[in-house]
Specification:
mainly alpha; 3 strands
């Protein structure tokens, strides 16, 4: 009998507080700019929601009872959609990480923790039986039809199985 492989739990990446007391340079203008960045109801999210609604698909937004509070979800049809910002969620992270110049002690762990959390959220949702769709903000803006088609194809396949 072979020994059972050990399962390793990935520890959360520690993100330092973004404060001058922690050694990070900030200004009132920078602080104001960062405060204006919205995490919910972004333009790409609204564009995708409108397209989905016009296709006849009904959904809820930012459902607090699901892991990660998906941007769009339908519990009955078992799908969730996240529209991720390319900076915040680390699109092409290996390349962008090298180009960061300021406050790297904060931004690198911050974005890597976001990437880690996204993977954990995907696993949780998939284990609950949900199909997880993740689209980059620029994909929704530039290739809306292709993004929408992925969700609609899943729903069409799901309906034929029933």
């Amino acid at each position: 009998m072979q020994p059972k492989p050990k399962s390793y739990i990935e520890l959360p990446i520690k993100v330092p507080r973004f404060e001058e007391a922690e050694g990070f340079y900030t200004t009132k203008l920078r602080s104001k700019m960062m405060a204006n960045i919205s995490g919910k109801d972004t333009k790409p999210e609204r564009i995708f929601r409108k397209a989905l609604w016009n296709a006849g698909v009904r959904y809820r937004i930012h459902c607090k009872s699901l892991p990660g509070k998906p941007d769009i979800s339908n519990k009955a049809l078992k799908f969730v959609v996240f529209v991720d910002g390319s900076f915040w969620h680390g699109h092409d992270w290996k390349q962008k990480k090298k180009r960061l110049k300021s406050n790297t002690g904060f931004w690198i762990p911050k974005i890597e923790r976001n990437i880690q959390r996204d993977k954990q959220t995907n696993k949780q949702l998939e284990s609950m039986g949900f199909k997880v769709f993740r689209f980059w903000d620029f994909q929704v803006k530039g290739e809306l039809g292709a993004c929408l088609k992925q969700v609609l194809d899943f729903l069409a396949d799901d309906q034929t199985k029933k």
